[in-house]
Amino acid sequence: MSSNDYVHGYSHVESGRLRDQANVLADLLHHDTRYPPGSRVLEAGCGIGAQTVILAGQSPLAHITSVDISVESLARARAAVEAAGLSGVTFQQADLYQLPFGDESFDHVFVCFVLEHLAQPQRALAELGRVLRAGGSLTAIEGDHGSAYFHPASAKARQTIDCLVDIQARLGGDACIGRRLFPLLREAGLQSVHVEPRVVYADSSRPMWVEGFTRNTFTAMVKGVKQQALQWGLIEEAVWNEGIRDLERTALDDGTFNYTFFKAVATK
User: What is the pTM of this model?
Assistant: First the structure.
């Protein structure tokens, strides 16, 4: 994947959205992600370090190597880890299709919200498997935009989500890859694959989820592709605007929003 294939871009607004997303989802997705002292962990595609801070905080005695193809993202990730007062993390620029590490260099591999952006996720997983030692674990976490459903229902809101899915597909990714994790890991030769859905449900009785996920994560993510959707003729602007209003409507007192992430753990 080149840095130009990231559907959400590299703006400071997007960096803020990624941090908000990581924070609100930390317990749901990562409460059971901890690595033993001294273990060698590869974080594949660390981006701006939103997940790195959580990993390093939960496994402070592990040796984490975080890689990304974007030099700018690596600089932000390094700054985020330093600001959090964490250590034990090494950053390195790398292409996930051709990692600069020898066979079986790591005890564990962690990849989160990355496979969805790759044109060849199977190839990346095979390369990650190559650098994983026999008996080591690989953890993969992905969302699935097809799992989003909400009240009040809205066909136009669904059209805006479909625009994001379409744009990501045109860039070579798959915004619905969460449902594919099991076969992808099996095809990569990994064993004992276990996939567990992690469901977000937000209503006004859960204001943290309404603000952190419905508004600041999902709706913000969809809103971020407006210009591409209009430029590529995927939707009329009036329909887009109404669809976004309907998505925002789900965050009001009588609205609800549901979304499913998938967390897979496998061994080599």
Answer: 0.91
